[in-house]
Design the sequence.
């Protein structure tokens, strides 16, 4: 099957130089990444950890024409089509891939990503180029984190939270995948519809190495693919006016540790960024495990940053809505933008890309005797490596070839990590439902 697409708004106004550059990029070593991301967004709703082998006859080409650009799809997934024509939302996601993978790759190839200021400015520029930095008079964007592998009752709960937020005119930003990323968007869409809100925002932030396992769900109407996990995490906290954390696995723990490491920075002590952990009554054990791990490793100050509000969507939504006034007042008092939190201090250790190789995972400083922000950064990297070994193509391959990642450190800390990770495994939070989990890590507890 061969389908030719005319670009939608925005990409139909490219110059011939821009078209030539995109076409050249699509035939460069970047092509494999481009094809993989394009396949993921075309196969929306496909919840699998192994996407590419199922569609090995798929291909995509960019064709230069006098009037601009055409997109050629060869054997696209049926999920992308209705009666032989591509779904509009799916084509929007596909054009986001072209924009963020091909266009941005050349635009930022000379950016010094070891420079903290340049990193923050580049993330802003990527978001602005994607038209997601929008003028607003009142903060209203709620970032929702949680697992792609959650129980049915937890999924229903995330939808109810989204619904209550939507009824109160709040918008949603997630990692854009299934599970706890899809539920809040779906609920908010219904809430917005009831309130006749026609410009509801369902912002999905992802990155290339994870997009196959967490392909954009069909509710996402603004998709941005950041260069790597660190840029994605910074984008989340820069655009967030509040953060809600649902039950999840290693990826959610990574996000939480990243957030806590930043908020523990003394420069961020006055920041107003509400953090709520919530889920149904049956998820209390999960939150108890998380709270205990946070307090026993990062201290009471870190634990006090978290507000646990189980089993009460209305109360959670009311709390978040009320906090928007405080967020606005704080941003106004320091002269910061509502759309992008420039005043949030993020240390370089949280910005630099971490390669979860066996050598780098083994070299992590996992000892309690260090500043809490540095410990949080190391723990974040450890959980990031576990996510890579679980679902990212390169990480999964590395584990198959060399065996599990080895994590070594302070015996007390390693016991706490082992306990938390085993709880995730027992609760079925490390893989898609129905699949048996084979640990990609090994924790060394040396007395």
Sequence:
């Amino acid at each position: 099957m061969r389908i030719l697409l005319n670009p939608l708004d925005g990409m139909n106004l490219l110059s011939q130089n821009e078209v030539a550059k995109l076409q050249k990029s699509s035939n460069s070593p970047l092509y494999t990444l481009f094809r993989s991301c394009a396949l993921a967004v075309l196969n929306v709703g496909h919840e699998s950890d192994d996407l590419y082998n199922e569609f090995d006859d798929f291909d995509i080409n960019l064709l230069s024409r006098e009037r601009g650009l055409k997109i050629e799809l060869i054997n696209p997934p049926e999920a992308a089509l209705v009666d032989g024509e591509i779904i509009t939302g799916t084509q929007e996601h596909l054009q986001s891939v072209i924009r963020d993978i091909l266009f941005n790759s050349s635009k930022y190839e000379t950016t010094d990503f070891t420079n903290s200021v340049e990193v923050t400015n580049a993330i802003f520029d990527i978001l602005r180029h994607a038209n997601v930095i929008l003028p607003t008079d009142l903060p209203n964007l709620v970032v929702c984190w949680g697992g792609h592998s959650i129980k049915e009752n937890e999924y229903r709960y995330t939808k109810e939270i989204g619904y209550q937020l939507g009824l109160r005119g709040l918008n949603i930003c997630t990692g854009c995948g299934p599970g706890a990323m899809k539920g809040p968007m779906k609920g908010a869409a219904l809430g917005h519809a009831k309130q006749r809100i026609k410009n509801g925002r369902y912002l999905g932030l992802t990155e290339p190495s994870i997009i196959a396992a967490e392909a954009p769900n069909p509710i996402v109407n603004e998709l941005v693919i950041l260069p790597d996990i660190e840029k994605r995490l910074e984008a989340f906290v820069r655009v967030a006016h509040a953060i809600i954390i649902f039950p999840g696995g290693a990826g959610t723990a990574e996000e939480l540790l990243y957030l806590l490491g930043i908020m523990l920075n003394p420069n961020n002590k006055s920041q107003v960024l509400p953090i709520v952990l919530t889920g149904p009554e049956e998820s209390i054990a999960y939150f108890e495990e998380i709270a205990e791990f946070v307090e026993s490793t990062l201290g009471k100050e870190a634990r006090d940053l978290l507000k646990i509000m189980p089993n009460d969507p209305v109360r959670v939504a009311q709390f978040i809505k009320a906090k928007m006034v405080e967020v606005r007042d704080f941003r106004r008092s320091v002269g910061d933008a509502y759309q992008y939190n420039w005043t949030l201090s993020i240390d370089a250790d949280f910005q630099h890309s971490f390669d979860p190789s066996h050598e780098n995972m083994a070299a992590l400083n996992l000892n309690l005797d260090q500043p809490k922000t540095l410990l949080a950064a190391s723990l974040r990297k450890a959980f990031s490596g576990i996510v890579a070994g679980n679902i990212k193509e390169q990480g999964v391959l590395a584990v198959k070839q060399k065996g599990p990642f080895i994590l070594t450190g302070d015996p007390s800390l390693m016991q706490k990590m082992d306990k938390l990770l085993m709880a995730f495994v027992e609760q079925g939070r490390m893989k898609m439902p129905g699949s048996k989990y084979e640990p990609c890590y090994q924790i060394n507890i040396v007395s």
The first strand starts at residue 2 and ends at 5. The CA atoms of residues 210 and 392 lie 6 Å apart. The chain has three domains: 2-107, 121-334, 352-444. Residues 121-334 form a domain with the Rossmann fold fold (CATH 3.40.50.450).
